[in-house]
Design goal:
- The chain is mainly beta.
- It has a domain of 153 residues.
- It contains three helices and 26 strands.
- It has a 26-stranded mixed sheet that branches.
- Strand 23 and strand 24 form a beta hairpin.
- The longest helix has 12 residues.
- The two termini are 37 Å apart.
Length: 348
Amino acid sequence: MHRALIASVVVASVAVPGTAAAQVYPERIVVRTKATTVTTHTAYQRRDRDNDREQEIERTTKTFRLGPSGALSLGNISGDITVTRANGSDTTVEIVKTARGRDTAEAREALQFVTVDAVERSGRAEVKTRYPNSDEVRRRNRRGVNVSVAYIVSAPAGTRVSAESISGNVSVTDMKTEVNATSVSGNVRIAGCHGGTAKSISGNVEIADAQGDGALESSSVSGDVVLRRVTTRRVDAGSVSGSIQMDDVHSERVSAHTTSGNTSLSGSLVKNGRYELKAFSGDVRVALSGSTGFELDASSFSGDIRASDFAIAARGRADRRSLSGTYGDGSAVLDVSTFSGSIIISKR
C-alpha cells in the first residue's frame, strides 16, 4: 500500500508529451518540418544484422536563431535526446530517424509515417515528434511503425531547455540556466546546469556539477538517483525502487526519500539548513565535512544507529534505535529515519 502510493505520486510528477496520447508507438517513427530552414538532409540504408532487417536512416538539421537566452522545447517519443553547449549563437537540432523493415521498400515507407514539427517564434522554438494514429496505421495495412528518432542538439549556454522522451535517454550538458529533463523509459542526466528537474519512471537519474541559487528536483520510480558536486539552494530527491546517492552536495535544504534502497549524503551542512533523509527498506548514511553543528533526530525500527564520530549531547532516552540530541552549536537540523535498515553518521 505504502509503495503503491509513492509510485503513483512519482509517476504523476513525470510529464509525458501531450501529443502522444492518440499515437501509435513503436514498433516505432520521416521528418516533415515546418517554419524553419533545413540546412542539411541526407539519407542512406544498411542491413541491420542484429535482426536481419533492412534499415533506413535519414538526417535533417534545423537551425534556429533564438539568441543567447532563448527557449527550446523538445518532445520525443522513441529515441534519445542529447543537448550540449554551442560555441556560437545559433541553436541547431539534428534529427536522425532510423526505420527498419523486412526490405528496403518497407523501411523507406516507414520513414514517411513519422513527422517532426519544428516551430520558431519570438525567441522560442518547439520540436516535436508525431507518430500516426491507429486509424492511419490500419488504413495502410500495417501492424506497427518501427521507427526511432534521435535529437542531437547544440544550443547557447543561456538557452532554457525542456526535453521529454517517452522511450529514450535524455542528456543535457553545460546549459547555464534551469533545465527540465524527463523520460518515461530511459535514463536522464543533466550536468553543469543552474537548477531545474530531472525525472524518470523506468531509468536512472543523474545530476552533476550543478551550481546556482535555484532548486534541483530529481526522482525515479524504478532507478537510482545520483547527485554529484551540487551547490544550490534546495535539493529534492526521491525514488520508489532505487537508491539515492548525494556526493559533495552543499545546500540549505535537502530532502531525500526512498522506499526500497539506500540513502546517502556526503558534504558540509549549512548553518540554519535543514536535511531530511528517509528510507523504508534500506540504510541511511551521512558523511559530514566542516564544523557546522546540528540538531539530530534519528530513528530506526529494526536497525542500529551509529554516530560515534560526534560528541552528541543526547536529549532524553538514547539507545541503538533512537537518538536525539545536539552537536556543536546545533544550528542545522538533521532528521534521519529508516524502517528496515541502519543509520550511520560519520565524519568525512
